Amino acid sequence: MLAIIYDLEMTVKRKKGEFAEIIEIGAVKVAEEEGSTVIVDTFQSFVKPVLSPKLTTDTVKFTGITQDDVNQADHLQDALDQFVAWIDTDDYALCSWGPDDKTQFLKECRQKRIPMHWLRNHNNLQKQVSLAMKRENNQQVGLKAALEALEVPFVGKHHRALDDAYNTALIYIRMKEHIQLKRNEVKEHPNYESEVVYRDAQEDEPINPFAALASWNKNTDK
C-alpha cells in the first residue's frame, strides 16, 4: 500500500463560530524501492478560500501564504481532483500528523458538497509515533519534538503544507517498523455520515451546518 503523507494549511480563525478553510495542500509519496523506503514524489497546491476570500493578517503571518497565492489558486474541488489524480492508484493510505487535518477535510468537504470517496485508509502517524516513543500519560509528541528526538533536521519552513508533509515523511521512514497502516472508510465515522446541506429559504447560499459544533471543534492552529 502506497503511503501518501499530507498536510494542510488553513485560514486562522480567532472568533467562535468562524469556519477555517483550506488554503494549501502538500503531500509526498513514500514507497519501497530496491529494499528501501524512500520519498518518490511530491504534490503542492494552494487553494482559493470562498467563505472568507480575504486572508487575515494572522493567517498570512502564521503560514507565510499571501493573498496573491490564493487569488491565483483553484477552488478546493479542483485542487482535490488534482491531488487524487496525482495519487494515481487505488491502493494507498492517507497519513497525517495528528487528527486535525482529517477533521478539516471532513468538515469542509461536507460544507462545500465535495465527494469524499477518496478519503479512506486514513492513519494518524502522530499517535503511532508517540506510542512508539513511550510518551508519559499518552502525551502526543509534536512534529518538531519528534524530529529532534530522532535527530532529523527540519527541512523547509514550519506551517507550510509541503514542508510539514515532507518532514512527517522523514519521521515515517525512520519509524516505519513501528507504524502499521490500517484500512478504513469515511462511513466508519458516524459524526459525518449526513450529506445534508441546509439552506435558507430566502437565499441560494448554503448555511454552515457545523456552527453548533464550534465548542466541540479544536482550534485548527498547529
Automatic annotation (TrEMBL):
<dbReference type="GO" id="GO:0004527">
    <property type="term" value="F:exonuclease activity"/>
</dbReference>
<keyword id="KW-0269">Exonuclease</keyword>
<keyword id="KW-0378">Hydrolase</keyword>
<feature type="domain" description="Exonuclease">
    <location>
        <begin position="2"/>
        <end position="181"/>
    </location>
</feature>
<dbReference type="InterPro" id="IPR012337">
    <property type="entry name" value="RNaseH-like_sf"/>
</dbReference>
<dbReference type="Pfam" id="PF00929">
    <property type="entry name" value="RNase_T"/>
</dbReference>
<dbReference type="InterPro" id="IPR036397">
    <property type="entry name" value="RNaseH_sf"/>
</dbReference>
<dbReference type="InterPro" id="IPR047201">
    <property type="entry name" value="ERI-1_3'hExo-like"/>
</dbReference>
<dbReference type="InterPro" id="IPR051274">
    <property type="entry name" value="3-5_Exoribonuclease"/>
</dbReference>
<protein>
    <submittedName>
        <fullName>Exonuclease domain-containing protein</fullName>
    </submittedName>
</protein>
<keyword id="KW-0540">Nuclease</keyword>
<dbReference type="InterPro" id="IPR013520">
    <property type="entry name" value="Ribonucl_H"/>
</dbReference>
